[in-house]
Each structure stands twice: as C-alpha cells, then as structure tokens.
Amino acid sequence: MFNLILFGPPGSGKGTQSEKLIAKYNLKHLSTGDLLRSEISRKTSLGLEAKKFMDKGNLVPDEVVIGMINDALDNNPEAEGFLFDGFPRTAIQAQELDNLLARKNTCIDVMLALNVSENELIHRLLKRGETSGRTDDNNEQVIRARIAEYHKKTATVADHYQKAHKVLMVKGEGSVEEIFERLSKEIERLMKIENC
Ligand code: B4P
C-alpha cells in the first residue's frame, strides 16, 4: 500500500492536485471536505450540523470527521493506497489516523505539504467563490477565519509527521501542471522505498 497526505492551507491546491494524482497512481481519494459537502447536499443530520461550522470558517468537530474516515477505510478494503486530502487537520485526527492505519498493518508513507503565500490563497479562494456557490469561498472574512483556523489547529499536524521524518515541502505556486510534476517526482521516488 502507498498512503499519502496532501497537506496545506485552504486554497493551496489540495483538491486540484488530488484529482490528478489519484488518476495517475490509482489511489483512493479521501477528501473530508468533499465528504462533508456531500452530507450537506443530501441534508443529512451530520451535514446540517457540519454546515454550521463550515459557514463560519471553523473546523468541524474531530469525532465527526474521524467517523467518516473510519467508514471510508472500512468500505474500501481493496484499495492499493489512499490519498488523504484535507485530513488530518488537528493533532487528534493525526493520532487517530495513525491508529486506524496501524490496525490495517500499514501507515502514512509521506506528507506532501504545499507551500503557498497568504495573498495567493485569498486570491484563489475569492476567485473560486465567484462561480463555485460555496458559501465558505465568497466572503473574505470567512476565508481569513479558515486561514486563522489552519494556523491555530492544523499547522501543528505537520510537526506530528515531522517527528517521523515524513514531511516534504513542495512549492505550491506556479501552474497546476508544474506543481503536479513536482509532486509526481517525489511520489515516484518514495514508491520505490519501504516507508512503513
Ligand atoms: P476543504 O474542502 O478541504 O477545502 P479547501 O481547504 O478550501 O481547499 P483546497 O486546498 O482543496 O483547495 P483547491 O484545490 O480546491 O475544506 C473546506 C471546509 O471543510 C473546511 O474549512 C472545514 O470547515 C471543513 N473540513 C474539511 N476537512 C475537515 C477536517 N478534517 N476536520 C475538520 N473540518 C474539516 O483550490 C482552491 C482554488 O485554487 C480552486 O479554485 C483552484 O482552481 C485554484 N487553484 C488550484 N491550484 C492553482 C494554481 N496552481 N494556480 C492558480 N489557482 C489554483
């Protein structure tokens, strides 16, 4: 198995690059943002609860997203590997992900962290907000709250994997193709090594 976390602040291109990487490397894409938006569009009780947090730019409670990931891992026993996009976002989520993977006798091979300036993040998200219909993208105050939440609760997740020497920083500015090339180069190098 090859398990990778694509990490970075909101708008750093995790979703964009994930789509390309799962197609190239035959990984199962697990995006907590997509899973939550699917719950919201189906108006489930989980979705209605999550929406209250997301509309303010806050993180959804840990137990909700951990439960979703646990189900997704159980529902994909044949996967050759997972690409985690937008998860883990807190130290508790990171610890729980390690536990879930250990139970399957596997681990995170690498965290690829996209590095993007704050001005570029805001510019990208406001631009997406013009067309996406996402209520968390069309208000600069909410975007700034998401970035603040990232610095307060999520940036520390990189420290967790840094201790295991599993973090690689990748420049997240430039064209989508250029960034994809950078990520692919690292993945191909790491796929040849036993990391777990
Ligand atoms: P997410 O859905 O994870 O989304 P994101 O952080 O906003 O965006 P991402 O980094 O994927 O950026 P993208 O590629 O789309 O989270 C949304 C919310 O869900 C969170 O705020 C939180 O409330 C909740 N949530 C999710 N996971 C959670 C968890 N684990 N715990 C608790 N709460 C959770 O790119 C953004 C834009 O940039 C796009 O328009 C794209 O076209 C553009 N772009 C991408 N690459 C570009 C490039 N190279 N140049 C120019 N533009 C580019």
What would you say this structure looks like, in words?
The protein has helices at 14-25, 32-41, 45-54, 62-74, 91-103, 118-132, 140-162, 176-191, and strands at 4-7, 28-31, 82-85, 110-115, 167-171. The protein is globular, with a radius of gyration of 16 Å. The chain is α/β, with parallel strands linked by helices and 196 residues long. It has 8 helices and 5 strands. The chain has a 5-stranded parallel sheet. The structure holds BIS(adenosine)-5'-tetraphosphate (B4P). Residues 8, 10-16, 32-33, 36, 53-54, 59-60, 65, 86-87, 89, 93, 124, 128, 136, 146, 175-176, 179 line the site of BIS(adenosine)-5'-tetraphosphate. BIS(adenosine)-5'-tetraphosphate is lined by residues 8, 10-16, 32-33, 36, 53-54, 59-60, 65, 86-87, 89, 93, 124, 128, 136, 146, 175-176, 179.
Number of helices: 8
SSE string, helices as H and strands as E: EHEHHHEHEHHEH
Estimated share of beta-strand residues: 5-15%
Helix content estimate: 55-70%
Q: What class, by secondary structure content? A: alpha/beta
Comma- or semicolon-separated keywords:
single chain, 196 residues, alpha/beta, five-stranded parallel β-sheet, 8 helices, 5 strands, binds BIS(adenosine)-5'-tetraphosphate
